[in-house]
Amino acid sequence: MPAAIAVTSADLVLPPTDPGTPQAVVLPPPDTRPLDASLADMQQLLARYGHVVVVCPAAAPTAVEHRLHTVRALLESDRIALVRTDLPPLGAAVLVRQLRQLAGCDFSPGVLASAARLLAHYIYAGAVLGSVSRLDRVPVSLGSHLKGWLPGAHFAVLAGPTPQMVRLGSGKNAASAGESLAGPEFGTELLLARGQLQTDWPTTTLAPHWRIPGPVHEAPLPASSPGWWGTGKLVEFAAYLPDLPVLYQLVSSVRRETCHWCGMELIGDRCGFCAAPLPPAAPPPDPGSHALRPGPRAGAHALGPGAPHPAPGGPAARAALP
Questions:
Q1: Which residues are within 8 A (CB) of 147 and not within 5 positions of it... i.e. 6 or more apart?
Q2: 40-97 tens-digit pLDDT
Q3: Do the bridges between strand 4-7 and strand 52-57 make them parallel or antiparallel, or are there none, so unpaired?
Q4: How many Cβ atoms sit within 10 Å of the Cβ of residue 106?
Q5: Is the separation of the CB atoms in 145 and 132 below 8 Å?
Q6: Is the N or the C terminus of the chain less surrounded, counting Cβ atoms within 10 Å?
């Protein structure tokens, strides 16, 4: 493995898709582990794997992020990547599992860390909610907030890649309303995590509408899901690319760059280890600027020292002909 995949919560660790999927390392919360113990844990990971990619949800407690930054600063290590994600808890767990799958491939640690932003765009993460009155992580209109107080109101909410929300009625109205929730245009699997809301809408309506080919999988509801969605009356879902060959092709098809700051390999526009953005491409030279430059001396070779003059009618000339 080029790097260990570490997480800040056990909720982010889903069962592996196959025996070859590496396990994730769960970092204990700061309130249960002293700083010197956290430093020792990270040193052991670095000694064993060389690099560590830590996935930390943006909704994680501030103390968790502070501990990670403190550990990296005290170790003075540029081999620790802190990957933040805005995905809801179940979607973040799917992202972690995909990174675990790719960790067993031949990708460099830099590509693996920066691939998280790419993979997140292909995860359709949402939930069916009994109320949106306390939902503040997905844009919700005032009218939806007011309808969220109505008895029996259900909402299908998509947090990403493009936020969307539809109100579900009951019976036949629920099925028809669900068809307006935009889904992926590629083959995916669907994962559910059931909370306190009693509804089969994800399996009876959402899965057929999104053309989920196989069975719908289920996992325990992450402990942080009620806080993220603002209610415990929910069924969380995530549609994702399950096959490792597809994930491998997706990541390997992106052009690789070298970070100008830390030297790590990356894909996309930002380094996964030092978070330095990719410098903008240099503008093309002005076609008229050559007129200001001195021309070649008489008798000098314009093609450079020792370069032969092209023969008249040679390949260069023939290439210019229509």
A1: 153, 167
A2: 999 999 999 999 999 999 999 999 999 999 999 999 999 999 999 999 999 999 999 9
A3: parallel
A4: 9
A5: yes
A6: C
